[in-house]
Amino acid sequence: MRKLDSLLAIPALDRASQPNIQAAIDGKAKPLHALGRIEQLTVQLAVIQKTALPAVSQPHLLVFAGDHGLTLSGVAAYPSAVTVSMVDTLLSGRASANAFARVVGAQVSVIDAGVAADLSDRRGLIHAKIALGTNDASEVPAMSADQAVSTLLAGADVAMQAIANGANLICLGEMGIGNSSSAALIIHRLAPAPLETCVGPGAGHSPEGLAHKYRVLAKAAARTDVNEPIDVLAQFGGYEIAMMAGALLACAKAGVAVIVDGVICSAAALIALRLAPQAHDYCIFAHASVEPGHKIIMDALRAKPLLNLGMRLGEGTGALLAIPLLQAACGLLSDVADLKDVLEGSA
After folding, report:
1. CA 118 to each of CA 85, 245, 315: distance values in angstroms, whole numbers, following the listed order
2. What is the pLDDT of residue 204?
3. Which of the residues 75, 190, 294, 311 could staple to 289 if both were Cys, CB 3.0 to 4.6 A apart?
4. Cβ pair 205, 213 in contact under 8 A
5. CB 149 within 8 A of CB 4
């Protein structure tokens, strides 16, 4: 627990430079506040990076993969084998996340957090497997409390390595059949919110399939009344969700901005920010997922996503699409003329 305590000891963001950054933005050749949330992003990145000229030079997407025992109870429209297939697709560079990453110039790393298969022969995969998928949370805890803590720390290690290798912006993504069910239970307990409002179709369900999914999750929720973050993670979480939470905390600890993708990543953020609320200032929420639980998380965290594109894929695709907005925000300070220079030139 000492290592976890160290990870959670995140200092509050030092905002001493914020008035000067805001003054520099206000002095640019544009009406005051005319660029809306882009100006807010500029300030956030400048304060996080402790510089008057922030930059997004080496964005890095971390895609954490894991399987869920809940799929044994039929909560997912696809079998767990699809997780393995999508890991292979990501490693081959042919997934949606890979295509988007090439467009925005981001590096992609794929991490085996807890896929229910032996992937030791996969080249290019970061091997951090905790177990061969979680237990069926409708019957027993998804993982032990010790595994929950170990997984948080493992995710932190992955993020710290990416930062040590030069990443100055981390994007979080995931792959895992059944993880929308895990996320719904986490939202239910940590937002908190009624379970029925947290359950969505995930990768796709018929009305009958969605009704069955809710019944299974209600059974899981009835097993225990836990509501503390580590306990909720152990009872209902996934290894990929836990590693994303740990990665987020590590980014905040290191003073690096982190882009949170859709509902699964946001459920991980909910865990992380319930553990260390001060990490919120380092988070940028990418897009509004159409999964119903996502708005519940955003309301609970008082967060506002940058984009609303009707997406619900995962993989970090929404996080990647937010990168150009951050790059534009940096350009506001580095490339836009000062208003006084424009006025002097017109005199």
Report:
1. 13, 24, 21
2. 62
3. 294
4. yes
5. yes
Summarised one tens digit per residue, pLDDT across range 258-281 is 999 999 999 999 999 999 999 999
Phi, psi of 141, deg, nearest 5? -55, 140
User: DSSP per residue over 135-196, as a string?
Assistant: --TTTS-SS-HHHHHHHHHHHHHHHHHHHHTT-SEEEEEEE-TTHHHHHHHHHHHHTT--HH
pLDDT tens digits, one per residue of 58-73 = 999 999 999 999 999 9
**Assigned token pair, 252:** 């905040």
SS3 118: coil
Crossing angle of helices 96-104/317-335, nearest 10°? 10
DSSP strands (E only) in 1-92: 59-66
Question: d(Cα 135, Cα 281) in Å, to the nearest integer?
Answer: 34
Alpha helices, H only, the chain: 2-8, 18-26, 36-49, 81-91, 96-104, 145-164, 179-190, 195-198, 207-222, 229-236, 239-254, 263-275, 292-301, 317-335, 339-346
Tokens of 263: 């509902």
Under DSSP, is residue 329 helix (H, G, I), strand (E, B) or coil?
A: helix
Cβ pair 229, 271 in contact under 8 A = yes
What residues have CB less than 8 Å from 82, skipping those under 6 apart?
Answer: 177
How many Cβ atoms sit within 10 Å of the Cβ of residue 78? 15
